[in-house]
Amino acid sequence: MFEQYLVCEDGFRNVVEDGKAVGFEVKLRIPYYRGIALSLINSIDLEINDQSYAHDDMIFSVETGSFPYHELSTVINNRWEFGEKATLFVKKPGGLEAGMHKVHAVVNLRISYLPWPNIGDDTKHISLEEDRIIA
Questions:
Q1: pLDDT digits over 19-30, tens only?
Q2: Which family does it belong to (predicted)?
């Protein structure tokens, strides 16, 4: 139901550190009607222009903190709230080329009272915004 809002059309940009693009970030909304602890995220898969990115290269950020992807299963005191735009940073030297990109995200959540996972799947064609520069 909420998967159509999963990939946000804003906040898609390269991240530049010391004058070099070190990766890119995309904003995501939770594909569920409530917030959840980050430990309940089974998986987040991302493809840009049909190219998949490794979980080892991802950092997931919500208002209360940033966590390497492989640590999410242990994060019980931080939540991804309904309506909150989380940031998924992907390490990619050189970043992405300027222009329009096909962004496909699949978020798999574990919900305590459901015997099956809640899976959100969304694809949008969005353009890179101005770089975010880290001082």
A1: 999 999 999 999
A2: Belongs to the C-glycoside deglycosidase beta subunit family.
State residue 28 phi and psi, 5-degree precision: -130, 145
Name residue 72's amino acid.
L
Q: What is the distance between the alpha carbons of residues 90 and 29, in angstroms, rounded to a whole number?
A: 17
Expressed as residue numbers, the domain containing 18 is 3-128
CATH number at residue 7: 2.60.40
Q: What is the pLDDT of residues 73-106, one digit of tens each?
A: 999 999 999 999 999 999 999 999 999 999 999 9
Distance CA 83, CA 71 (A): 23
Determine if the pTM surpasses 0.90. Answer: yes
Is residue 134 in a domain? no
> What average pLDDT does this structure show over 62-80?
97
**Residue 112 CB burial class (10 angstroms; 0-12, 13-18, ≥19):** exposed
Classify residue 55 as exposed, middle or buried by CB count within 10 Å of its CB (0-12, 13-18, 19+): middle
